[in-house]
Amino acid sequence: MTGENESRDHIIKRLKTIRDDAGAGGYLLNPDVPFVESLISGMCVNEARYGYPACPCRLAAGARDADLDIICPCDYRDPDLNEYGACYCALYVSPDVASGKRTLAAIPDRRPPRDQRAKKTGGVVPAGTLPVPVWRCRVCGYLCAKENPPLVCPICKVSQDRFEKFL
């Protein structure tokens, strides 16, 4: 029973962190608490298994570099929210879905097949145009101009490896 209690405590702590981060970024979580807890449980399993919280609704490769696009919050969250009112796994939902004004429907997976995935490199600006590179958060689009990207995105709280060189 101790292991189950520790696991449950971990899920509740992770849920609080995700809910706080979502709220700070202007996002809403699905109001179905048992459903959300099952997703968080899957993320915790993936984190224990792989070392990162891969989306529990997708098959992770088990290599962080190959799975950067599906580490929660995934790269597809915002486009899915804008078009369908929820992200692929329905952890994040729009205000209309959260309030019951809009019902959830099936959301197609935007993730390209493995053989078509390639790291985005961004545009190249002629030397001397900018004194430092511009970095873009692949999750929320936050831009910053400095030598290196921030350790954590100040907007959506993802880690530094979720940034790409934009200019």
Explain what you see.
It is built from 5 helices and 5 strands. It is mainly alpha-helical. The chain has 2 domains: 2-116, Ferredoxin thioredoxin reductase catalytic beta subunit (Ferredoxin Thioredoxin Reductase), CATH 3.90.460; 119-167, Rubrerythrin, domain 2 (Single Sheet). The strands form 2 sheets. A 3-stranded antiparallel sheet has the order 4-3-5, with no helix packed on it. A two-stranded antiparallel sheet has the order 1-2.
Largest sheet: 3 strands, antiparallel
**Count of strand segments:** 5
Tally of distinct domains: 2
Give me the CATH superfamily of the largest domain: Ferredoxin thioredoxin reductase catalytic beta subunit
What's the overall average pLDDT, rounded? 87
Q: What is the count of DSSP helices, taking H or I runs of 4+ residues?
A: 5
Features:
single chain; Ferredoxin Thioredoxin Reductase; 167 residues; mainly alpha; Rubrerythrin, domain 2
Break the fold down into its secondary structure elements and pairings.
Elements: H1 2-24, E1 28-29, H2 33-50, H3 64-67, H4 77-84, E2 92-93, H5 95-99, E3 134-137, E4 143-145, E5 163-165
Antiparallel strand pairs: 1-2, 3-4, 3-5
